[in-house]
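Re: Re: token formats

Sure, here are both.
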Amino acid sequence: MKALVLAGGLGTRLKPRFADRPKSLAPLGGRPFLVHQLEWLARFGLHDVVLCAGVGAEQVRETLGDGSAFGVRIEYSIEDRALGTGGALKLAARHVQGPTLVMNGDTLVACDPWGIERARWESGAEGAMALFHVEDAASRGRVERDEEGWVERFIEKDEEFFGPAWVSGGLYAFSERLWERLPEGPSSLERDVLPALAAEHRLRGVPLEGTFYDIGTPEEWERAERRFGA
């Protein structure tokens, strides 16, 4: 199974801190964030990686090379314009052969990624996503699923919401059929594709224990740095 890493984000909220590098290369414990992701993938036997890069792609390539230093083999899918997460996956379609793991380039999870694919395959779903329980979901979008484990709906982040909820861990397993759904040009996996899958009962939500790290904001980066920089 190949892993596609969506590493083309602009990282505008981190620019005041790391203006000279793309978000996916923000240092964590003194090492680029992507290095932590690649080593995590290699640890679970996922050695074939496609990096979907955009802004700062050359810097990413210069830093990571072919991935051999981190136990993986990297192929690059480079956007020449901003395509969003859905568009980046569509651009990388030529790399897809069979079930594929997809992960956001700014999240790191504590789980066995094969468990996500197993949940997808055993249910016959088109996709499965890792869900984590957080005590305060005000700053995050929420995910609701039914008693059988099918994702029912996505709720945009609401700062007036207080309390615990399940949220996306930015890790997915998809069948090859997903790429037939992706439109040409810019699109959002989260807004344009996943809700449609959920409406058709084709998307599993896989609740996981533990924590995950999302470096999309300075506050979340600092939380991760306290863990990995210790």
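Second one below.
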Amino acid sequence: MDDLKSLLVSGRGSALLGMRCVVAGASSGIGRATAIHLAREGASLLLHARKNRAGLDETLDLVRTAGAGQGSYETVLADLAESDRCLDLVETAWRWGGPIDAWIHLAGADVLTGEARGWSFERKLQTLWQTDVVGTLTTTREVGRRMSADRRGRRAQVVAADDANRPLPTIVTVGWDQTAHGMAGDAGEMFGAIKGAVTAFSLSLARSLAPHVRVVNVAPGWIRTAWGTTADPYWERRAREESLLGRWGSVDDVAGTIAFLVGPAAGFLTGQVVPINGGFRHPFDPAG
């Protein structure tokens, strides 16, 4: 932990200084890495988790080290499988720091590790549908509505030059790179349907909210999260061989891309799916 903290201060910048960002699903993995990257660039953060208070508190500690006082940081727990809690989370965010500059929606159900790994296909699918699809749609639609209203209201007022030139508010959702071509097996059928729905929704949301709010969908490939650390030799080989760069992606690969996407340098990007996969190679042949 101390070694990790010593690395957090390296490369600190100010590209996001003054921005108010929400990271939904920040207690571990890609969400934690994203929070650290945003804090290091100066953002203030509201960090969300479903129920993992210990993990969220650990993320908060790392974020405080990474940000070194550049921003303010708060945490909140909410189960986004429940629509009322989705709306409560949005209300909490606006009370905390509205108007919000960036909403990074990485919250999703884990059905690949722990007890859920042994669930039936049907139970996994229902869990993913409620959290990853319905939860994402319910939350980000309300976020987009508020962001759009805030932006239109701000433009109608006489504002300071630095405020008028702020980047458009941005929503980032998460898909999957293999929805574009499919993957054989239960996992492919399940995640293809779930992440395909989120991706299609995100592209439509971008059009609904233009030109006041940007929406970008990131599509990670083989990223070494908690599941990847225990992958058997088949998946190890597949992860390497399906990337032109010949390796697993890291959570920092995804987090760094997200930090770029919510910043001013990506101001002309919206309605896009951004693969983060090291360059996808032709689908792996299980019989090969």
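Residues 2-276 form a domain with the Rossmann fold fold (CATH 3.40.50.720). The chain has one domain: 2-276.
- S.
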